[in-house]
Batch of 3 targets.
Target 1
Amino acid sequence: MTHTITLIPGDGIGPEVTEAVVRILIATGISIEWESHEAGVRAFERTGQTLPIELVDSIRRNRVALKGPVATPIGTGFTSVNVGLRKALDLYANLRPVWNLPGVHARFQGVDLVIVRENTEDLYAGLEHTVVPGVVESLKIITERASTRIAQFAFAHARRHGRRRVTAIHKANIMKQSDGLFLESARRVAREYPDIAYEERIVDAACMHLVMNPSQFDVLLLPNLYGDIVSDLCAGLVGGLGVVGAANLGQQTAVFEAVHGLLSAVLMLQHLDEGEAASRVMRGLSTVLTEGSVRTRDLGGSASTTAFADAVCRAVERQPPKVRTSL
């Protein structure tokens, strides 16, 4: 079977790391046809749009995309391409599994948790304006529909993957109506899953507990802003953004980013029911990381992206000790 996948190389280091991941996927032997489209700065320079309609149409048609990092200006300039893409395709669930990779130094070992982040609203709705000079108002949007939908996703994921607990993260002690609505929605869904334990944590306390003892958590359910912050915090527990993957999922489409994590591509292979190819990438990656002679700078080495990709490609068909392959 040949898969047609939209490829978004991205900005900055994006094209370099995207090319490396594509080579690793080719080494698995699966058949992929790529439709490459630009976004962000590169797209704006060519078309005057940061999110061209032909890119969105390509993802709708192919239903799967692999995306590199796209820069977002800070304080000025165009709005986030990532947020725009999630809204345009209704990619309502951001899924980030977090667990230790062999051979990667981390502050904690035995980490095994999943971040489920609502992906379409909250402060990321981008509704802000100047009230008077020197005063800016930003609107936090929480709806029952989106909160219920993401809670259902979290509990269904927990049941499907044998997870035992869902923890809803909130600040309802202060934002009693908005975060309160998020919690009310999660509680209603929790009652439909009596086999899954449910608890709630205030976001600041949850962050403290995560950096003290992450093993106490299983599946974390969060609104958009808290989810963005906590997911990066959790990546730091196991070695950084380069050793975790992420998927943005909707009813019809899925976008896997950013590919510098490589595990995002593994998530994509699993989504495509290419489990053997996903296992081969994981075996190859595990071999290279365990041997330790080829590491990129973010992992304490000096190898280039190309050299690391070469090493993983060579290792893809080896048969190292069995490693975990399910994200």
Note: The mean pLDDT is 91.
Target 2
Amino acid sequence: MARRAHVTLTGGMSPEGRISGYLLKVIRECAGQTQEQLAEGLGVSAATVQGWESGRRPLMAMPAGNFMALQARFRRLGTAPGLLDALAHGLEADLFIGQALAAPHHQADPAGHLLGTWVITRPFTEMTAWPIGGKAPQALERSTRRALRRGPVPPGPVLGADERRHVITHLQAVAERADRRTAHGLLLARQAYYLIGFDPSPDTTAWLAQMYRTDRQKVRPAQGWSPTWPLARSTASALTRLGDPEPMRCFISDQLCDEAGERANLNYWAFWAGDFAEQQTSDTFIGSTPLSAWHGNRLMRHLLDRLYGNIGFFELNIHTLWSLVRVRPELVSDPPVADEMAAKIEQLLDENLVSAASQRELDALRYVIAIARRY
């Protein structure tokens, strides 16, 4: 998916390189290389490597052949493929951040905006949100900690306060101007909302809450699946991340109330968790893809790893796990999976932190596991 995304994310170069540069530093240190050693292996100066890592020499400006040589060098050093994939995602995120920083707010044009031309993936989202909210992508957290043990250096790529506010204001501008009468506009608005939700500032929370109220008046979401379903989900997700679980509870009760809504929820989660092999250029697939198009192993793992934390996501994760097991009961036939799920369910029920609806879903999951263990 990510490799195809490069086709979508072309349309003008920008001088940004901090995310991919920071990733290069992480990869180099995980490979046990100094800047001088890497430079010697690539036939460049140490100053060039320093420029790449600082972002002063953006990796996206590197000729394709040189970038392939860089990747080959790290492969020979035993670098995990996932880290090299992350470097490609970092280039995509740099392109997006650079274009946002280069656009004056009054020129933030929704027509043809990158966020309206493809359905962003979890790796791209985590990379782009990293300098906004400060949380490292999950796949990199262990490697980042390992690389950062050597001294007091920033824990991730850094945007200045003014730069971060510029990116958020840019996203707000395109979200406000997006035409919600079109599929392109709905996609742009909801993906801008989702990225904005990584900024914890009170002003951002207030703005998102106001947009949530405005959208519910102007674009009233229908029960179950409708073209506005993704907008409702992304707005609820953004507000949940910022501490308000009520929009997510409304989403679960209103948009996941029938078979079509449940199918849409599972399809989107399967895409997000990586069970889909194709890039998507619109949200249409969410409502139209048959459940037989994906298996669910990755989604099961994704959900089991996230039965904790923020209450709004917590309850959506429980509901989605319950829904997944209803359509894929064979996923709990694997004893280790069943044992892990059972242990987590018992802990959640003992803690008594979730709504009555979530408790009923946990009880239903416990029953399914008990049945599976009999056979």
Note: The CA atoms of residues 252 and 316 lie 7 Å apart.
Target 3
Amino acid sequence: MTDKNKLGIILFIGSETVFFALLILAYLYFQGLAASGGSGPTAASSLDPLTTGLFSLFLFASSFTIWQADKSQARQNRARLQLWLLATIILGVIFLAGQGLEWRNLIRQSTTISRNLFGTTFFTLTGFHGFHVLVGLVALAIVLGLARAGDFKEGHSSAIESISLYWHFVDVVWVVIFTVVYVRVLL
């Protein structure tokens, strides 16, 4: 039987999946409208898929590190658990820094949330994802603090499993966003 923490995060992820699906569909719909007569910046004229792809690798690598943290907990290896949690946090922070640099560059080019449909949908979609990454980083930092304080002495931890599920969700969402927004620019 699934414990209440794990069930709660699964239900939350389900609702967030619908939320992100709708944001992605809105992005695609409005990009179609913009392509048929809009003016101003577009994904093709504004985004740098290669640089974003490089920063994305850090987020993708963090799925491996959180998986290793979960495995370390199962083996009751507290030192490794803390190391892998810290690695996950660092990789997530690097990804967020990359997103921040991209936003700064776009704003410097006068591509803003209020400029046109591309700006509105792009900043909304990537902003909500970035917010979810930030929430995950806070949760990871709390779990790391608890691990350093001596919690999680048993081999099973629903807290670590739940944050791991959430973090994998955030990564999968970025795979979809990256494909829809950035890979499409390359094609």
Note: The chain has a mean pLDDT of 93.
